[in-house]
Structure formats: structure tokens, C-alpha cells
TrEMBL record:
Coiled coil: 137-169
Region spans: Disordered: 1-62
Protein's UniProt name: ENKUR protein
GO molecular function per UniProt: calmodulin binding
Record's keyword terms, sorted: Cell projection, Coiled coil, Cytoplasm, Cytoskeleton
Superkingdom classification of source: Eukaryota
InterPro entries listed in its UniProt record: Enkurin_dom (IPR027012), Enkurin_domain-protein (IPR052102)
Transmembrane intervals: none
UniProt feature, compositional bias: Basic and acidic residues: 7-21, 40-60
Places the protein is found: Cell projection, Cilium; Cytoplasm, Cytoskeleton
PROSITE patterns in the record: ENKURIN
Protein source organism: Sylvia borin (Garden warbler)
Length: 229
């Protein structure tokens, strides 16, 4: 079979020859020759400082001096000695710092930042419950009361009856006695269950035990139980 030949083969070949022909030269390429004046100098890339300003007519540019008859105006003279003395007399005495010496050589350290100084128990509000905590407790108590009131209102609307503690105890006792009875029957089952009846009887007892355990746990967990009429 004939080999595959691209349709644009001739066009690509023509474009390649056309581009190559522009770079063909006779001899060295004609480029700009560098000037001999542009030679490399020492440290050409460092910033150059601005030229110094020349003095005008040989005189320095200095500020004018005040005349001899000039006297500065002094508004007030302060007596720093008397001022410091008054500040010391009226000022509060510096309180000595508390130190603790723990070695024979006299090594000492500040007592207040060490945690040994009773600084916090001397506060006026030491041991007092913060107002934010008290306010939060009151809010939680009020929310709990509102919730209980809403629950009671819903129960009244649904006409649900709450079990008394005596009825709850009796029901729990009866469930436990029933569980003991079924568990005793379960323990007396034969080890080998080779018949369909034995397997079905064993599964039935297991389901009853599981249901009784669930009911006992639910009653023990909830102190208040409501029954719908």
C-alpha cells in the first residue's frame, strides 16, 4: 500500500526555505562595530554622587549672626532645686519591695511574682462569684422553668397522665421478676438445638429477654413517665 503523505508537506517545505533564505549572508554579518571610546571603566555601575556646590565669591554660605546688642527674652526662670524639694516633700514614700532569701550566701528574689505572697486573697472581691456567672445561672434556671412549664402545657393539651413513683416502682419490679423467670427458663434449655422447635423457642426467649432489658433500662433512666390515654 502507498505510504501516507501530508497535504501540506510542500507548503511547509516552501515556508522553511523562504525563512532560511533571509538569514543567508556572504561573509560576516553586518553589525554595528563598538566605538573605542566606550571602553570598560572601573566600577561603572556604582551610584555617583552629585557634584559639590561651589562657594559664591569665596564666601561661605553661613547663617547671619545676631548683633551684639541682641538680648534673648527670658520669660521665667525656674528654680529646679526648690521644685525638686517640694516634689520630694509632698510625694508619697517609695514602698520597699518584699524579698525572700533562701540560701546562706544571701541569694534573694522578689516575693510578689514568686507566688508565695498572698496577693489575691487580699482582694475585696476574692471568693465572690462574678456577676456574669450569677446572671447566667439565673437565665438557665428561668429557661428550665419555662421549658418545664411548656412541657406541662403540652401534656395537658394531649391529656397525658404521669405515673406516680409507686406505680413506676411496681412496674419496674414486675419487669425484673418477669426477666428472672424468662432467664431461668432460658438457662434450662438444652445445649444442642437439633430441632426446629428448640431453635424457635430459644429465639423467642432471647427476644423477650432483650425487650425486657430495654424496658427496664428506659424506666430506670427516666424518673418521670407519661402515659397517653
Amino acid at each position: 500500500p502507498l505510504r501516507y503523505t501530508s497535504k501540506v508537506r510542500e507548503l511547509g517545505k516552501h515556508e522553511a526555505e523562504k525563512n532560511d533564505s533571509q538569514w543567508k549572508t556572504m561573509g560576516p554579518a553586518k553589525v554595528a562595530v563598538p566605538s573605542p571610546n566606550d571602553f570598560l571603566q572601573k566600577r561603572p555601575k556604582e551610584p555617583k554622587l552629585a557634584p559639590k556646590k561651589n562657594e559664591q565669591d569665596g564666601k561661605r554660605l553661613l547663617p547671619l549672626l545676631p548683633p551684639r546688642t541682641y538680648h534673648p527674652v527670658i520669660h521665667m526662670k525656674k528654680n529646679f532645686i526648690s521644685k525638686n524639694a517640694i516634689a520630694v516633700i509632698k510625694g508619697e514614700p517609695k514602698k520597699p519591695q518584699h524579698f525572700c532569701v533562701d540560701t546562706r550566701q544571701g541569694d534573694k528574689y522578689l516575693l510578689e511574682p514568686s507566688g508565695l505572697f498572698p496577693k489575691y486573697i487580699k482582694k475585696k472581691n476574692y471568693g465572690v462569684i462574678p456577676k456574669c456567672v450569677t446572671r447566667r445561672k439565673e437565665e438557665m434556671k428561668r429557661e428550665e422553668e419555662e421549658y418545664q412549664a411548656s412541657v406541662l402545657e403540652q401534656l395537658k393539651k394531649r391529656a397525658m397522665k404521669a405515673l406516680s413513683e409507686e406505680e413506676r416502682t411496681n412496674i419496674l419490679k414486675a419487669l425484673k421478676e418477669k426477666w428472672e423467670e424468662i432467664n431461668r427458663a432460658y438457662q434450662t434449655l438444652p445445649v444442642i438445638t437439633d430441632t426446629m422447635y428448640k431453635r424457635m423457642h430459644k429465639e423467642k426467649l432471647e427476644l423477650e429477654l432483650k425487650q425486657l432489658e430495654h424496658d427496664i433500662a428506659a424506666i430506670e433512666k427516666h424518673k418521670t413517665i407519661y402515659i397517653a390515654d
